[in-house]
Amino acid sequence: MKITKIDRCNVYTCISGLMPPFQLVVYFYNADGLLIDAGSANILKEASLILKNETIKMVALTHVHEDHTGMAHWLQKEKNIPIYIHKNSINEASQNSNIPLYRRVVWGNRRGFHAQPIPEVLQTEHYTFDVFDAPGHHPYHIVLHEKNMGWLFTGDLFVSIRQLVAFKDENITDTIVSLQKLLSLDFDIVFCGHSGVHKNGKEKMKKKLEYFMDIQSKVKALKEKGFSIEEIDTKLFPKKNLWTIVSGGEWSSRNIVKTVY
Ligand SMILES: [Zn+2]
Q1: Of 87, 173, 232, 257, which has the maximum CB count within 10 A?
Q2: 46-69: per-residue pLDDT in tens?
């Protein structure tokens, strides 16, 4: 695990996955004692050696997916600290996850833990984080905004500008609304769960919004001409993504077309 530093925020970077090509990068953050997201279970062995010596006073989870909650059980046991998540995910978080094989190989199953509803504001010694609902990638996804620093911790809401596949939990119409809402906030730096720290993050989020609005208008036009979801999917995304095959369709461009309009 690699650690870099931005002001009072430690940036943790880890490769999760048992072997290539089933490996992905996971980023999580320790902003002045507030751990934002808790990585995957598959990095626990490596990450725990470092995290046990880090000052962590509380944990905020952007959403319940196993690559953001994988070490929460260990953190609770080791550090005895509060763990916050969206109130509608507390029940799911309390149970061990039961995910398909390809996700077990990359991330591993999460062990259940006791979370509390995330408050509207989280305060550390030097920072104040405003918590905003930001559904899209997941219905109960939150983001954290530190307005004095111009920071936005976006979990999996951003990831990349040109998103080619969406997860089965995603709703792109919600993503569009969330992006529009968040772009009214004051920030420059985006801290993402899989693509790391983006210095001109607000600009990139604007481009993502434009990308999805363009797809939305194309889907709308094709639907009005009578094309089916499948036909529109083939027209707009002619190349089948490897992850669509590996995931048995959990990740697909069809999920974008189905939910964007
Ligand atoms: Zn996710």
Answers
A1: 257
A2: 999 999 999 999 999 999 999 999
